[in-house]
Design a protein that fits this description.
InterPro entries: PUA-like_sf. There is one protein chain. The protein contains four helices and two strands, in the order βααβαα. The chain has 97 residues and is α+β, with helices and mostly antiparallel strands. The chain is elongated, with a radius of gyration of 17 Å.
Length: 97
């Protein structure tokens, strides 16, 4: 992870927040403004070390294999068993060193 930036008092800082993420977040400005319309704080997590997988895991498959699975709104750590299941679905090692 490169760094984390917290934008407090978001109504006044929204333009600064947008300037920081607009070329990295892959979100349209209108969607950004709609999402943060009533927010008082915004958090930007900048990630530098990204691993793109060759295969994808379909949501329906994850829901079948992992009880009560719901996609996170931002990110979360996978439990060891979830990593194992995901690796079996995509037929690729998830933990890359």
């Amino acid at each position: 992870m490169e760094n984390i930036e917290i934008f407090e008092n978001l109504p006044k800082q929204k333009n600064n927040f947008w300037d920081k993420i607009k070329n990295k977040a892959h979100i349209k400005e209108k969607d950004f403004n709609d999402y943060y319309k009533r927010a008082s704080i915004g958090v930007a997590i900048f990630i530098t070390k990204v691993h793109k997988f060759d295969n994808t895991a379909k949501l329906i498959k994850l829901k079948q294999k992992i009880k009560n699975f719901t996609p996170p709104q931002s990110y979360r750590y996978l439990k060891p068993k979830e990593i194992e299941i995901l690796e079996s679905i995509v037929k690729e090692k998830i933990l890359v060193t």
